Amino acid sequence: MFCWCRPGFEPELAAELTERAALANVAGYARTQRSSGFVEFISDEAEALSRALPFESLIFARQKLLRLAELRGIDAKDRIAPILAALDAQASASQGAPYGELWVEHPDSDEGKPLAGLARSFGNALRPVLRKAGWLAREDDARKPRLHVVFLAGDHVVLARSEPHDSAPWPQGIPRLRMHPDAPSRSALKLEEALITLLTDDERARLLRDGMRGADLGAAPGGWTWVLVRNGLHVTAIDNGPLRQHLLDSGRVDHLRADGFHWQPKAPLDWMVCDMVEQPRRVAERMATWLREGWCRHAIFNLKLPMKKRWEETRLCLALFEQQAEKPLQVRARQLFHDREEITVFATPASRR
């Protein structure tokens, strides 16, 4: 298994994969380097490992791939021939089935970013060759497995595959979102990414409807409130700090100057979101109270992680949240591209799955 992650969080992803594989009784070991932007989990039981670790369940992985081959010392004058040879060696396992798309990628790290130009130009050269050889569909087909060519260096390539239903739908697992000129802060990108990453298309259609009501705890200057308003919600924004005036002018925002950790709604809400800077266990406990008491039906919140033992803190906080919520919940968590030292959590009643 080959997984992209945020550079610097390789130990957390390695620990997550190792622990979850052990719990699933799948033997293997993690291999990575600090700040590389990826982790490999080596196992003789790759298919069992993939089933045991569905992408949806992974927190620190941006993308999940299954490695086909690793090519080192490739001649810069002909990188295509060894790739075709490696694919031919896989023919007995894959039965020559074409891939639906080709993604040529590189690590999202300081060392990997200079490879962006090579990846782009090589993809343009390789794509028609693969189509002629029968490895790639004549037209992109998002229903079929993807073929990934990962440049770790100019002469070092990893070939991998991903299943559309069990991976991120973006190269490197990164949704390329643009900052809207009306957004009050860049934090709006975090909630926008959370909505497209942690919710399915069907859930977004069902759970975010015009006229719903929500609360934004620690709202100032209003980035997350702005995203909810754009999705049709009427929002109570809780913060002692000021909000951008155009939010108040929308007619959909009530600003209450109060402490987000102590305020509670007078009537149940559809949504609660929270991006307060506070100890993660304290946030987890307060979020659990909201779900337990029925103050909201759905929630998205961030947990700011410590500098050390971040996987351990993540496990503890999520377990604490689910235990104190005292009701069956569907919980998904991910370190998003627009997150930093934090993870984002989505929680909804299990019956809504």
TrEMBL record:
<dbReference type="GO" id="GO:0032259">
    <property type="term" value="P:methylation"/>
</dbReference>
<dbReference type="Pfam" id="PF01728">
    <property type="entry name" value="FtsJ"/>
</dbReference>
<feature type="binding site">
    <location>
        <position position="259"/>
    </location>
    <ligand>
        <name>S-adenosyl-L-methionine</name>
    </ligand>
</feature>
<feature type="binding site">
    <location>
        <position position="275"/>
    </location>
    <ligand>
        <name>S-adenosyl-L-methionine</name>
    </ligand>
</feature>
<dbReference type="InterPro" id="IPR011224">
    <property type="entry name" value="rRNA_MeTrfase_M"/>
</dbReference>
<comment type="function">
    <text>Catalyzes the 2'-O-methylation at nucleotide C2498 in 23S rRNA.</text>
</comment>
<keyword id="KW-0489">Methyltransferase</keyword>
<feature type="binding site">
    <location>
        <position position="187"/>
    </location>
    <ligand>
        <name>S-adenosyl-L-methionine</name>
    </ligand>
</feature>
<feature type="domain" description="RlmM ferredoxin-like">
    <location>
        <begin position="2"/>
        <end position="65"/>
    </location>
</feature>
<dbReference type="InterPro" id="IPR029063">
    <property type="entry name" value="SAM-dependent_MTases_sf"/>
</dbReference>
<feature type="binding site">
    <location>
        <begin position="220"/>
        <end position="223"/>
    </location>
    <ligand>
        <name>S-adenosyl-L-methionine</name>
    </ligand>
</feature>
<comment type="subunit">
    <text>Monomer.</text>
</comment>
<feature type="active site" description="Proton acceptor">
    <location>
        <position position="304"/>
    </location>
</feature>
<dbReference type="InterPro" id="IPR048646">
    <property type="entry name" value="RlmM_THUMP-like"/>
</dbReference>
<dbReference type="Pfam" id="PF18125">
    <property type="entry name" value="RlmM_FDX"/>
</dbReference>
<comment type="similarity">
    <text>Belongs to the class I-like SAM-binding methyltransferase superfamily. RNA methyltransferase RlmE family. RlmM subfamily.</text>
</comment>
<feature type="domain" description="Ribosomal RNA large subunit methyltransferase M THUMP-like">
    <location>
        <begin position="78"/>
        <end position="162"/>
    </location>
</feature>
<keyword id="KW-0949">S-adenosyl-L-methionine</keyword>
<dbReference type="InterPro" id="IPR040739">
    <property type="entry name" value="RlmM_FDX"/>
</dbReference>
<feature type="domain" description="Ribosomal RNA methyltransferase FtsJ">
    <location>
        <begin position="185"/>
        <end position="278"/>
    </location>
</feature>
<dbReference type="GO" id="GO:0008168">
    <property type="term" value="F:methyltransferase activity"/>
</dbReference>
<keyword id="KW-0808">Transferase</keyword>
<dbReference type="InterPro" id="IPR002877">
    <property type="entry name" value="RNA_MeTrfase_FtsJ_dom"/>
</dbReference>
<keyword id="KW-0698">rRNA processing</keyword>
<protein>
    <recommendedName>
        <fullName>Ribosomal RNA large subunit methyltransferase M</fullName>
        <ecNumber>2.1.1.186</ecNumber>
    </recommendedName>
</protein>
<keyword id="KW-0963">Cytoplasm</keyword>
<dbReference type="Pfam" id="PF21239">
    <property type="entry name" value="RLMM_N"/>
</dbReference>
<feature type="binding site">
    <location>
        <position position="239"/>
    </location>
    <ligand>
        <name>S-adenosyl-L-methionine</name>
    </ligand>
</feature>
